[in-house]
Amino acid sequence: MDFYLDLKFEKRKKMLQRRGMWHKTHRFPYRRSREGDSHHLSELRIVLMGSRGAGKSSSGNIILNREEFDLKRTAQCVKRQREVADRHITVIEAPGWWINEPVDQSPELLKQEILLSVSLCPPGPHAVLLVIPGDSLFTEDERKVFQGYVDLLGERVWSHTIVLFTHGDFLGDTSIEQHIESEGEDLQWLVEKCGNRYHVLNNNNSSDDTQIKHLLEKIEETVMENNGCHFEIDRKILQRMKERRRAEERAKKRMKKIKKQREMIRSQMSDTQKLSELRIVLMGYRYSGKSSSGNIILNREEFDLKRTAQCVKRQREVADRHITVIEAPGWWKKIPVEKSNELLKQEILLSVSLCPPGPHVVLLVIRVDTRFKEDERKVFQGYVDLLGERVWSHTIVLFTHGDFLGDTSIEQHIESEGEDLQWLVEKCGNRYHVLNNNNSSDDTQIKNLLEKIEETVMENNGCCFEIDRKILQEVEERRKAGERARSQIMSEDEMSDTVSLGSFG
After folding, report:
1. Which residues contact 346 (CB under 8 A, 6 or more apart)?
2. CATH (one of 3.40.50.1400, 3.30.565.10, 3.40.30.10, 3.40.50.300) for 2-233
3. Shortest CA distance to 158 belongs to which of 124, 130, 199?
């Protein structure tokens, strides 16, 4: 196997040598400047793109030779500038995507920010660095995801791209060319799509100036290959940026409307109307963050983060209130209610009867960092409708993983996602809240949530949600039928065991 990899490596090496892109000392593609080694651009504009955790932020810090980028992920582009190696360097870090999440399943906000990244360094970037960890597998799925996000910028962007392999220390004595050949056709396709432009960065050795010197040289060579031109995004694609600005205007209007709505409700409430008890039901799809949200609300690890098929009930004194939280089991995000099992539906119906006389609010839990389109909306609506139409007046949309938004408002996210998320929010009377599950120590986010729950109770004339008796009766009948079926199966098994034992008597 190693013999064939070595042959492939030598073949790639010879091809690069023919093109004048091989340097035996540094073992990476290298094209000498036509103007001489001393000539370089006084300004370089760079965009970093890649999946989450690929090493974009740390690469940006190494390029600028200073801690300019926060290693925490954000939903927004981050722009930093500095003088490095006699050049004025601008680095834009685009937000990352989930490595297995195709572009058509990602939030609109993420796609808009990726488009924005290349317009934040006018007139355009000299190079787009596609960041890939050198210590992880690059499969067909990753290649398709990568291609989808890069293609947002249009076909022309590929002639301005360089693959930047991070965690180069993982390679040891293995050359990057050997790594490319051993990974297979998907990584080879990406490298060749980028015109065989690639570079390796050792993120653990930021003091090595030569690795950045050579990277900047490669960027200048890329500019030379493009006849001295930078990348400019297609005007048609820029039209999508105008839609972003329109969404921002709509977001401001929504924010003002909600603020006015809340102020009106609060004006009708007095301090004596503060509820001493609150009963809450958490509903949502699996992995949406229900359990961690319950723990944050109760300010203690009360819910196991492992999923369960049954409702879980927990209680605690929080902020001078007796809080009861019921977590209903989650459904698969794309499986509609009619295709789910009876036990799941029964447990969802049971959840609102576990805190008699009924919950003050039902929190519909949705991750803010994933796509919410028509399919998700229909599935969500189907499960909530199990409880009857009246439940919608007692619901609040709870957005989890709020750290993804960065400085972007939740209203901007709602507007950018489109009509399906907007429909859900409006179906819930424009009641919504954002929770940063990574910052459980922030008491204000729960204080504000509890206030919104009290406002919801006020909107419902002080009443909690009570499920229709007919629905509960149907659940009880189905439950008893299930128990009878299980008892019958057990009886048949016992009879079968008796017959089997008798045959040996």
Report:
1. 475, 478, 479
2. 3.40.50.300
3. 130
Helix or strand holding residue 108 (H, E) = helix 108-117
The phi, psi pair for 326, rounded to 5°, reads: -110, 125
Average pLDDT, the chain: 84
Strand partners, 78: 93
Beta strand spans in 248-370 (E): 277-284, 312-318, 321-327, 361-367
102-129 residue pLDDT tens: 998 888 888 888 988 998 999 999 999 9
For residue range 245-291, list pLDDT tens digits in order: 677 778 888 888 888 888 888 777 766 567 889 999 999 999 999 99
CATH class of 276-459: alpha beta
Give the C-alpha separation, 454 to 493, whole Å.
52
Does the pTM surpass 0.85? The reply is no
**Exposed e or buried b per residue across 37-50, where buried means at least 16 C-beta atoms within 10 angstroms of its C-beta:** eeebbeebbbbbbb
Instruction: For the beta carbon of residue 489, count every other beta carbon within 10 angstroms.
Output: 10
Where along the chain do the CATH 3.40.50.300 domains lie?
Answer: 2-233, 276-459
- Classified as helix, coil or strand, 355 is coil
8-state DSSP, 390: G
